[in-house]
Amino acid sequence: MLTVDHVSHVYQVASDHAVEALRSVRLAVRENEFVCLVGPSGCGKSTLLRIISGLLAPTRGQVVINREVVSGPHPNVGQVFQNANLMPWRTVLENVTLPLELAGISRDQREEAAHRMIRLVGLHGFANRLPAQLSGGMAQRVAIARALMQSPDLLLLDEPFGALDALTRETLGEELLRIWRLRSSTVLMVTHSISEAVLLADRIAVMSPRPGHIREIVMVDLPRPRSLDMIHTRRAGELTRAVRAAIRGEDQ
Amino acid sequence: MALTANQQRVSRRRSTWHISRVAWPIAAFVIFLLAWEALIRIGDYPAFILPGPVAVAQKFVRVFADGTLLRHTGVTFIEVTGGLASGFTLATVTGYAIAKSPTLERILTPYIVASQAVPVVAIAPLLIIWFGTGITSKILISALIVFFPVLVTTITGVRSVPQELYDLMRSMQATPWQIFTRLEVPASMPVLMAGLKVGATLSVIGAVVGEFTGADAGLGFMINLADGLFDTARVFVGVFTLIAMALLLYGAVALLERRVLAWQRPTD
Ligand SMILES: Nc1ncnc2c1ncn2[C@@H]1O[C@H](COP(=O)(O)OP(=O)(O)O)[C@@H](O)[C@H]1O
Ligand SMILES: [Mg+2]
Question: Whose CA is nearest to atom 26 of ligand 1?
Fold first, then answer.
């Protein structure tokens, strides 16, 4: 479904100063697979996501989504950033309808779709609130609803729960699993929480420090549907240790 | 339809809020008038130095009744609104272009700074020579004085749009026009409204500076003429009318701001 083919990226900061962020990243994600991307901070995870979403052109290599080479932002890809990135002057409803508004869908149609999506992310009754009236967790739910509006085949999440407290984070993780089951789309999510990755993902891609590349891929063979309690199982503990070792660059 | 207890509480809170908002300025104004009258009584100044509030009120009625005041107020009002509208429009368009183009910024900045280094009173005579003593020259002078602060706020406003929101718009395949209307305009609105407020007050100053330099109508002209005739009461009438006009304009902009920026104070 998604193929990242030897993608390298160098940021030309100044004429005499360049930062090599990614070096020959290879990654393949199957249809409806949930893949988490972990790695030390500054290793190029956000850069990789920006390249996959078409916001940034790689220095070398290419990204293929559904057999099409990515050359720019595409409605097939939905994106959620670390900050909810809501427009503060728009209500929840208006934020969620934005992608369809930009695509020229009629008001009635897009509002109907948005109301359904708002219910799906558990914000029924909040459609007319402004972002300033929402908690961090609620704002991130709105961002997820917005990203799902164009029914993307691929959902990219860049530390979507990174700014939330631990409890909200767990709840939203479970919610994301529920939504993913209902909507059946492919998910690639960056997280800095190993247990979150173990709980959510089918596979965990571990990146090396900068210049980033995929150092190891850990298969998560916990049964689905998953629940929060599974993190305390022996298998989950082994997987967590394996991922941590991979991040540190140790052989198991 | 019966009001719920909550609605009643809200409406009561609103009405008291309104009364205190109007009552205090009025009380202050009455005290000001009394103090003024007291000063006249104690100091016993001649009317051409400091006329009392009663004399000014009488003069007001006279110039209002014979149509002089309305005519001059009308002229100044056209100059002020014309200057504000054209200065604001020109400044926002230029400001947007400068905010988006570093090249344009490098080219235009020296000229803009130079135009600000020269006081408007020094340029005003030139504009009067070139554009005559009618309202055109006053609109230009007013626009000139409005231009710079609005330009600066526009540049600040457009540059303050978060990069993440640009990324968001691009990831949703927004066209440049959609980015302009759905992101840049609403996002810079708070700063733009602040600029419009400053511009509203400056536009009055600009028009009056122009009228003092050379004019055949307008409140500034009326004041200047009355001053020459030692008709100090008429000067006061002119000054108060100008103040009222500035307040009215400022109030209108504040009202507009409340509407446009309603999202900044959500009612919970
Ligand atoms: N726009 C940019 N210009 C220059 N360097 C950048 C830019 N964005 C990121 N970098 C650098 O590239 C590296 C990878 O950044 P990023 O992809 O944000 O890492 P991560 O998301 O894994 O923390 C970092 O060293 C960062 O400083
Ligand atoms: Mg990052």
Answer: A42
